[in-house]
Amino acid sequence: MKKLFVHHPLFRLLSPLFSGALVYLLILLINNTIEDLNTNFFTQELYVCIGLAYIIQEAARIIIVLFNRLRQPNSFWVKSILHLGTTLLITVGLVTLTMYLYFTQVLSYTPNYLELLIFNSIFCAIAVFYVLLYISNQFLHRVNTEKLEKEELARVRMEEDFIAFKRDINPALLMESLEAILVLMKKDADEAESLTEDFASVYRYILSSKKKEIVNIKEELVVLKTFIEVLNRLPFREIKLSIHDLEDTWVVPGSLLYICEGIVRSSISSDLESISVELKEEGNNIVLKYSHEEKLNKTFNISDLKMIVRSYSHFTSDSLEMYQDDAVKTIKLPKIQLG
User: Fold this and answer.
1) In whole angstroms, what is the distance from residue 280 CA to residue 333 CA?
2) How do residues 104-159 score in pLDDT, each as one tens digit?
3) Domain 170-334 has what CATH class?
């Protein structure tokens, strides 16, 4: 938040001049007639009112600084009421003390109740206006902050939706698959048709699963096998997938497909060796292990799975893990249990 204008040196210097003169003018109008203004305006009482205005406004400013640092109470309105009450009490005390000293030490008589009431009423009105300026500024800042937070949240959600949409469409895989189909069409039309069907079934699953938050792992594995067949026809290192018995559990749709694609894209391309991927269950996790031989400029790490990590965080408190040794990289997906 920008610095409040009441703390600006120019405002602190000039504002009491006008407010003090206004107080003195009101007191003259209360005690005299308008015709007496020409003869009674520039007198000692004017400078007393201006000086008292400096004291009151500086006291109110200090109270603003103190309340701005307070953490309690949390309620905006309770804090505002407490702030206003404190300012009024201190203003009444300062005005009463200053006027009593001025009347007794300078004018040599004790001020009566009506005179103190007039001074306190006017200066309290100025103090209230001063505090209301601060409270209104705080309220406006609070409203604007909430609007900015909502706009930022909407922007983040839009970016996440765009990233998710881009991930689902997967333009790189789309182009690579279409190019492979074009090449196969010239060599083997039946093989090209088979690749097209597999490619279409994978994309149907990816796009239709956008309406689902989780799917049964058996449904995911059926598509995963088809997806592996598509990847093996593209210019990547071949994947050999071995699936051990997996109990009936649930996964975020497309998570296993995304992991397998990350594996082949980060592995060095070779026709001589394949990637052995093992998928099994260990306790409360679905474990995926593979022999890694990654590219020098591209490694597969947990930051590549942040969208999946975020998705799993909605369904389980267990975190997705990835670690490796010299030959094997392990990825652990927490099992999602319903009920």
Assistant:
1) 11
2) 777 777 777 777 787 778 778 878 877 777 777 777 877 888 888 888 888 887 77
3) alpha beta
